[in-house]
Design goal:
Layout lengths: L1 H8 L8 E5 L9 H4 L5 E6 L8 E2 L14 E7 L8 H11 E12 L16 H10 L2 E8 L16 E8 L4 H18 L2
Parallel strand pairs: 1-2, 1-4, 2-3, 4-5
Antiparallel strand pairs: 5-7, 6-7
């Protein structure tokens, strides 16, 4: 996540960016320190209250707490494996990002099961890129850290993290309407 910030946001350090962190509850650390710097505004978002959570979502697939086209940067690290219907989440990410807004998602491609409260998925580069395209987001990078020369003390390299960096392109009103209809239909199925 620090590499994403350095590569894509350091040149924007004087812009008042709104940065939203999906799955921000501080269980084993937080990205707040990388992004909570003036004039940026960092907001942590999760399903439960707790440390590093500014926005508590009532529904993980319908973020009424976040306005459409209001977020400059959305980050999410080590949360997507716990989201049952991640494709609906991707549509919400596309909805809240401003045109030109960036998204960085980090999720494991390996490692042991770790329920919190569920552990549903592992992701590869092609799957990450497909998630972005499904939501109408332009893929900038999609990769997996398969091997590491460094053995981290917390064994975090066992997860072989995949990274997706994508951008919300400008879309037509018809495309916005289609995505809204798709979100609505998928939300109905997710509650059956």
């Amino acid at each position: 996540m620090l590499a994403f910030r350095n590569k894509y946001l350091d040149s924007r350090k004087n812009e008042p960016l709104l940065i939203l962190d999906l799955g921000s509850l501080d269980v084993n650390g937080s990205y707040r320190g990388y992004f909570d710097t003036s004039p940026w505004t960092y907001l942590g978002m999760d399903m439960v209250p707790g440390k590093n959570v500014d926005i508590i979502l009532k529904n993980p697939y319908k973020w009424r707490e976040v306005k459409s086209s209001s977020v400059d940067v959305l980050i999410s690290g080590q949360a997507f494996e716990h989201i049952e219907f991640f494709w609906i989440t991707m549509l919400e990410i596309a909805r809240v990002l401003r045109p030109g807004g960036l998204c960085c998602i980090i999720a494991p491609s390996g490692g042991p099961e770790h329920r919190y409260p569920v552990d549903c998925w592992r992701f590869y580069p092609d799957g990450m890129a497909a998630m972005a395209r499904f939501a109408g987001l332009g893929v900038i990078e999609s990769s997996t850290k398969w091997e590491s020369d460094i053995q981290y003390p917390d064994l975090s390299n066992t997860w072989c993290d995949s990274v997706l960096i994508c951008r919300r392109e400008r879309v037509s009103l018809f495309s916005e309407w289609k995505c809204g209809m798709l979100r609505s239909i998928l939300n109905k199925f997710s509650t059956i």
